[in-house]
Amino acid sequence: MIDIVNLSLQFGGKYLYRDVNFKINSGDKISLVGSNGTGKSSLLKMLNGMIDPEKGDIFKRKNIAIGYLPQENVTHKGRTLLDEALAGVPDLKELQEKETEITILLNDPDVDDEEKLGLVEQLGEIHHRLEEIDSYSAEARVEKVLLGLGFMARDFEKLTDHFSGGWQMRIALAKMLIAENDLMMMDEPTNHLDIDSLEWLTGFLKTYKGALLLVSHDRRFVNAVTNKTLEIFNTDFTVFNGNFDHYLKAKAERDERLEHEYDQQQRKMKDIQQFVERFRYKASKAKQVQSRVKMLGKFDKVDLPDFEKSISFRFPEPPKSGEIVYEVKNLSMRFGDNLVLDKIDYLRRWVCSPAEKKVVWHLHFFCSKRQIF
Ligand SMILES: Nc1ncnc2c1ncn2[C@@H]1O[C@H](COP(=O)(O)OP(=O)(O)OP(=O)(O)O)[C@@H](O)[C@H]1O
Ligand SMILES: [Mg+2]
């Protein structure tokens, strides 16, 4: 489907990749991994023609339909949610508009019979194409995807302008899923999803027949929907077959080997360095010193992998408060027409059940964010 040949990309002299090669075949479900800033998003952008490589080629199969969900900054405006999502069905809007246009002309008494014959023929072709793309069930399919991604039926006629950033990303995701592409590229699609929508998306992608190139930090999700891993590491691409867990195992072995090679190389370099320091001013050793200095310059340095850093937290036990921690009476809150709290009464005592604790935590978090307490 896509063939990446001898590709290099750099920004301001810093190479993200150098002379890399990679193929995406139909049915590949690839997880693209690498530490922050290694160039995952840049690769997707390059494959979508948004940035140019410094060198190399990207060959794409003819007429390939590619969907791309960027990591951020997507906005939709001027259409209802349903219309915007329906725009994801390829050719549907254009075909429907053309159908309306021809129907009007066919009813126009000023259009002569010969011209009408041609229009009827065109209309037949349009109907054939509409059938091909299963246009009559398009709306039902679109609604299913929107509901799966957490939209409510009452949102369908709402203008997209009124959706927040996270929901804008969901609209873009919905449009891409609806489009039935040969290849979908997604940059952190789960960032804006709740658990239910994430479950739904996982199920959807499991049955998706096309190819997938995915960047995601959600290990469970990646494991469920991919069967190959492309790693960007030290400006190079490495492919691992199998899912993400398999990759982590292979990577751990590789990292251990690299660490060992690194230690060995460091030891060797230190020995040489010590020799040079020791005999630098000794005329009888001048030749050996010179050759060792040369050796030092010729080392092909082993780079250490980026080991994941772990941070540990310890929260001190808080001092016990009074019997009543806080009390809420008749608390309401709204954003415009959106009533989010309706006359809440709540008494928070020191001891409470786990379920109660959860409610209190949510309430407290919600209210403290808005500086009520
Ligand atoms: N247009 C640009 N001009 C200059 N530098 C850029 C440009 N785009 C990206 N970079 C730099 O290239 C590097 C790779 O960026 P990119 O966003 O591709 O990384 P990433 O692997 O997607 O990171 P993350 O995991 O944080 O999403 C970063 O150092 C970034 O600052
Ligand atoms: Mg990125």
Features:
373 residues, single chain, binds adenosine-5'-triphosphate, alpha/beta, binds magnesium ion, 11 helices, 22% strand, 3-stranded antiparallel sheet
Task: Give the overall pLDDT as a whole number.
Answer: 87
Bound molecules: adenosine-5'-triphosphate, magnesium ion
Q: How many DSSP helices?
A: 11
| Unreliable runs | none
Tertiary shape? flat
Going across the biggest sheet, name each strand in turn.
5-6-7-3-8-9
What structural category characterises the helix and strand content? alpha/beta
Strand content: 15-25%
What is the N-to-C succession of helices and strands?
Answer: EEEHEEHHHHHEHEHEEHHEEH
Largest sheet: 6 strands, mixed
DSSP E strands, number: 11
Describe this structure in words.
This protein is α/β, with parallel strands linked by helices and 373 residues long. Among the domains are: 248-298; 324-369, no CATH class. It is 42% helix and 22% strand. It is built from eleven helices and eleven strands. The strands form three sheets. It has a six-stranded mixed sheet with strand order 5-6-7-3-8-9, sandwiched between helices. Strands 2-1-4 form a three-stranded antiparallel sheet, with no helix packed on it. A hairpin with a 2-residue loop joins strand 1 and strand 2 (14-24). Helix 3 packs antiparallel against helix 4, helix 5 packs across helix 6 and helix 9 (244-279) packs antiparallel against helix 10 (286-298). The mean pLDDT is 87. The protein binds adenosine-5'-triphosphate (ATP) and magnesium ion. Adenosine-5'-triphosphate binds at residues 11, 16, 34, 36-42, 71.
